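User: I'm writing a short methods note and want a consistent example. For Vacuolar protein sorting-associated protein VTA1 homolog isoform X1, I'll paste the sequence; you return only the structure tokens, no commentary, since I'll be parsing the reply automatically.
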Amino acid sequence: MAAAGSPLPPLPAAFKPVQHHLKTATDHDKRDPVIAYYCRLYSMQTAMKIDSKSPDCRGFLIKLMDQLEQMKSQLQGTEAITNEVVGQAHVESYALKMFLFADNQDRAANFNKSVVKSFYTASMLFDVLQVFGELSEDLIKHRKYARWKSAYIHDCLRKGETPMPGPLGGEEGGVEAPPPMGFKDLPPQQPAVNQFPPPTNQVPPGAHAPPTTPAETPSNPVPTQPAPVAYDNYLQPTASGGVSLTMDEMNKASKLCRYAISALQYEDVPEAINNLQKALRLLTTGKES
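Assistant:
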């Protein structure tokens, strides 16, 4: 199992915005090296935009680049590293499963540090997805909600108060609850190594609590980097039979195809067929169903 090589030097103060992304990477070195790799890649890209010239920042970045190169070499046979489409599906699936676990626990009023950790780690991984491009509106809502929930539950537990389960009347502090997402809608993912057993209350298959609980949830939100637009707006592809497709429909078809690829990687043939059929139907008719 891949691990990150030599330890990093002390984190420069300027790089504080990525300290929890790097901590998430360390937490997943053995549990899921693919997650650890992309957490470090996001951290490096974000840190380089903050400061790549001062001696302490430059020295830190060089060591972080060395770690990434070592991990890439150790994981060279892993498709989620060599193929960014598969890598994006892997990270997105993991983040959504962690969010779903925390959301189910929260709505069932099972409040503990694991729920705080799951919500906050999910928000970190939604940040990490920006290495692949612009986040969808749904993922932005999930990230905002997860950050608010982790801070809210953590604050209640610290004060000895009982948190309110679920969204508070739909919104709290301008944070809107994301639309409900069924587990069947998530892309397939290989189970993580050394997963915790599911809690005694009902949890969807594959959802799991993280292996550690946080000593402290940061009070300040982590800034996110601007993401590039994936396609030029003027492109207007045409489906088979002369049906015009919007860029949203093309993106949706592409996403279904990469979910199918990810499913095949983990030998989930029925799920791969299901996603490919949906993509084909969308491309040939302009409709999902």
